Fold:
Amino acid sequence: MVQFLQQIVNGLSLGSIYALIALGYTMVYGIIKLINFAHGDIYMLGAYVGFICTVQLGLGFFPALIIAMVTCAIIGVVIEKIAYKPLRNATRIAALITAIGVSYFLEASTQKIMGTSAHSFPDVLGTQTFNVLGVVISMKQIIIFVVTILLMLLLQYVVQKTKIGRAMRAVSVDADAAQLMGVNVNATISYTFAIGSALAGAAGVLVGIYYNTVSPLMGLVPGIKAFIAAVFGGIGIIPGAMFGGFFIGIVETLVTGYGSSLYKDAVVYIILIIILIVKPAGLLGKNVKEKV
Amino acid sequence: MKERGIFNKYNAFWLATILVIFGLLFGLIAAGVINQVYLTVLMGIGINIILAVSLNLIIGLTGQFSLGHAGFMCIGAYAAGVVMKNVSSSVGGVLLGMLIGILISVVVGLLVAGPTLRLRGDYLAIATLGFGEIIRIVILNMNITNGAAGMVLQKVVDWPLIYIMVVLTLVVILNFGRSAPGRACLAIREDEVAAEAMGINTTKYKIMAFVLGAVFASVAGSLYAGCYYVIKPDMFTFNKSIEILVLVVFGGMGSITGSVIAAIVIGFINIFLQSFSDIRMIVYGLALVCIMIFRPGGLLGTKEFSYSALYKKLTSKGASK
Structure:
C-alpha cells in the first residue's frame, strides 16, 4: 500500500509535467487543428533557458521559470508566424510535415549550439524530503505540483474570464464566424501559441529540476506522451488535457514500479491506440459526425 | 495504344534501361571508378529507394499518412539478422530472413492496418508512430535479438542483389499504381468519401496498400542487415521514419519517379555533408519547412516519367512541324 501511494505521488509529479505540455498541444489543436509536433522541442528549449539562467546567470528558481516562460512564448509565436501561418489553408498533412520539420530544426540547432551530450541541472530547490506515513515526498515534487496547479488555475481564468480567452474560444468554434464578429483571428492564434509555449517552457524548467538533467532530444518522447495525454482527455478540451496528463503520468510510474520500465513507453502507446479505436474523440470529447 | 500485353516497345525500353544501368554500374565498378566507399553509398541509396518508394505507396498514392515505416524496416532487419546469426551467414540466409521478415510484416501490417486505418489524417499519423515504436520496443526486449546492444553481422549482400530488389520493388509498385486496386487507392487519396460513394471498399484498399508498403520496407530492412555489419534497435526509431518521409516529400508525394530521384540526390548530398553531420539535420528540418511552404508538391508533384509519354511527346512534336 505504501509502495502504491509512493508510485501515485511520483506519478502525480510526472503527470503534472505531461499535463502542462499537453495543455499547449490541446490549445493549438483546438484553435487551428494542427498537431504541433515542435511543441515537445519548445519544452526542451524551456529547459535549456532554465539551465542557462540558473547555471550561467546564477538566478534562482522563480526568475528562471519566468524567463523560460517568456522566452518560450516568444519562440512559439515566431515559429507560428514563420512556419505555420503561410500554411493556414493548406492540408493538415502539409501542416503536420512542416511541424515535423520545425521539430527537427530545433533539435538539431540545439545540438549544434549546446552539444549533443546532456547537461546536469543544479539542485536549485534543495533535496529536502518529507515522510508522510511512510511515503517519501520531496520538496521538488511539492513545488512542481503546486506550480502546475497554479498555472492551470491561471490558464482557466484567462480562458474563461478574459477577453483574449473569449476570443480563443470563439475562434476554436468557428474561425470565420469569429472574424465576422470582429475577433482578430491572427492575433488570437498568436496568443494561443504564446500561452501554450509558455506552459511548455515552465514544464521544461520543472523537468530539468526534477530529473537534474537537460539534453537536446529530451523533448521528443515527453512531447509524444503529452500529445497522447491530450488525445486521451479529448483533444481541444483544456480540462481533458490536465486529466490525461495526470493519468498518463500515473500509469507510467505504476508500470515502472510494478512491471518493467522497459515497457513503460509501449504501454503508453497501447493506451493511445486503444483510445483512438474505442473513442477517438477522447474521454471528455463528444463524437462529431463527418459532414460531406 | 496499339501494343497490348507485356511485350510492347515501352517495356522493351524499360528492360533496356535496366540492363544499361546495370552494365554501367558493373563496368564502373570493374574499372575501379566506383571505389568501395562510393559503392557503400550506392547501396545505401538503393535501400533508400526501396524505403521511399514503399512509403510513397502509402502516403502519396493512397493518401494515408504513416509514421511507422521504420518499424517494418526493423522487422525485416532483425528477421535477416536472426537467420544470419543462427542458420547461415550467407546470401541464402539473408533471402530466407527476408522471406520470414515479409511474412511477419504481413501479419503485423494487417494487425496495425485493421484498426488504425479507420482513423484519418493526423490521428492515423500518431497511431502508426505508436505502432512503429511498439514494434521497436518489443524487439528491444527480446532475447534472440540481443536487446539494446544489437547484432554484429557479416557483410554478405553485394550490390547486384540490391539492384535486383530495387528494380523488383519499382516494377511491383508502379504496376500496382496502374492496376484496378491502385486506381482505387488514388481515388481514396483524392476524396475518401466520394470514393466510398462510388462503391470502393476503402478499408480493403487502404489495408492492401499499407501491407504492400510494409512488405517492401521489411525487404529494405533485410538488405540493410545484410550489408551494414551492425543492426541496433535505436537505428529504427521514429527519426528513421522521418528520414524516409523527407525523401518522399522532397521527391513529391505521389510521384514514384520523384522518390527515386530524391533518394539519389539526397544520397549524394549526404556524401558532401558527411563531415558536417550536425548541420545535415538542421538542413533537413529547414528543407521540410521550406518545401511545404514554397513547393508543397515536392520536386515532381505527382508526375511520373514514362517512355510512352515521352514517345507521344516526341512524335506529336514531329507531326506539328
Remarks:
- Chain B is about 75% helix and 0% strand.
- Residues 34-237 of chain B form one domain.
- Chain B touches chain A at residues 65, 115-116, 118-119, 121-123, 125-127, 129-131, 133-134, 137-138, 140-141, 193, 238, 242, 245, 249, 278-282, 284-289, 292-293, 296 (CB under 8 Å).
